Amino acid sequence: MKRLSWLLAAPLILVAQPQPSCQSLAEAGRRLFEQKLYGDAETKFRLAVQACPEQPALLLELSRTLFMTGRLEEAQKQAEGALALDSRHPAALQLKANALYLRGAEEDAVATFLRAIELEPKNEDAIYSLGRIYYQQNRFEQAITQFRRVLDLNPKSYKAFDNLGLCYDALGKEEEAIRHFLKALDLVYKDHPNYDWPYANLANLLLKRGESEKAFQLASEAATRNPSSARNFYLTGKALARLEKIELAQKWLKQSIDLDPAYPEPRYLLGQLYMKQGRKEDAEREFKAFEEVRKKPRPRR
User: Fold this and answer.
1) How much helix, strand and coil, in percent to the nearest 5, is found in the chain?
2) Average of pLDDT values for 174-178?
3) What DSSP assignment string belongs to 241-282?
4) Which contacts (CB < 8 Å, 24+ apart) does range 45-54 have?
5) 135 and 166 in contact (C-beta within 8 Å)?
6) What is the 3 state secondary structure string of 209-225?
7) How far is CA 98 from each of CA 52, 81, 218, rounded to the nearest angstrom?
8) pLDDT per residue as tens digits for the range 257-277
């Protein structure tokens, strides 16, 4: 009993636990980021920034994590924080430019990408992204220049070939477009089995040319490669409709709508097919849905 009293009266000694370093926190954040656990990764990167606030690289990793969660304004702010510490940081400029573009500030994004490329002339990703913005702005010749710069750096850039196809298609140079799409297909056929864009883009061009059977083959391959793409199912349904395979086309169009209820084109075509079958009420329902969804802005990609 006396011994117990002595123990109770003894002062409690707390052993201080070592605090995790910003390096260990950042490493934990990177592991979580790779696992796509972005919320947990954000927590680790914020703690790392608190421990070492003057390191641009940590702010950049936090920015990248916020970007992946769609919190574009916060991502831009953290990238700007990194730039405040190092104004010549190409990766921070690139992240800021991407956030600006997705927030709708296209010209600011262009200027920021140009600055990043000036600092890092062989930055393939930044050059490609600038080309994509030019394409979206219908500045096709300028976009072509950027995609050709990408190919100078990387002759096997299937994305650059695919986007050159889109540019030439937009300029009405169909043979040039087809040539570049086919080059993209050659590059992705075996080595990139999940990449579907050149299949869908070439299918879309062939539909305009009335080559529906070839378009069906390409679009259905695109859907096989990427079964989560509403556009791939729409293009396949459109090709089948041109081939007068109405019921089968309707199945593909319904799948397209299920994948993306805000995608207007399959609804309109489905309505047209219902009209052909004399299903007036079904057609009117789809036409009404088409009018409703087409008024809503589509997210930038």
Assistant:
1) 75, 0, 25
2) 98
3) HHTT-HHHHHHHHHHHHHH-TT-HHHHHHHHHHHHHTT-HHH
4) 47/20, 47/22, 48/22, 48/23, 49/22, 51/19, 51/20, 51/21, 51/22, 51/25, 52/22, 54/85
5) yes
6) CCCHHHHHHHHHHHHHH
7) 26, 16, 31
8) 999 999 999 999 999 999 999
- How many Å apart are CA 123 and CA 127, to the nearest integer? 6
Give the class (CATH, top level) of 196-301: mainly alpha
Task: List the Cα angle 112/115/117 in 5-degree steps.
Answer: 110
C-alpha to C-alpha distance for 166 and 176, rounded to whole angstroms: 10
Give the alpha-carbon dihedral of 218, 182, 110, 295, to 10 degrees. Answer: -20
Radius of gyration (C-alpha) of the chain in whole angstroms: 26
Separation CA 143–CA 149 (nearest Å): 10
Q: Is 233 helix (H, G, I), strand (E, B) or coil?
A: helix
Residues 6+ apart with CB under 8 A from 85: 54, 55, 56, 59
The pLDDT tens digits of the residues spanning 5-58 come to 433 444 544 444 445 788 999 999 999 999 999 999 999 999 999 999 899 999
Query: What confidence score (pLDDT) does residue 20 get?
Result: 72
What type of residue is 64?
R
Those residues whose C-beta lies under 8 Å from the C-beta of residue 230, and which sit 6 or more positions away, are 256, 257, 259, 260, 263, 266
Distance, CA of 158 to CA of 182 (rounded, Å): 10
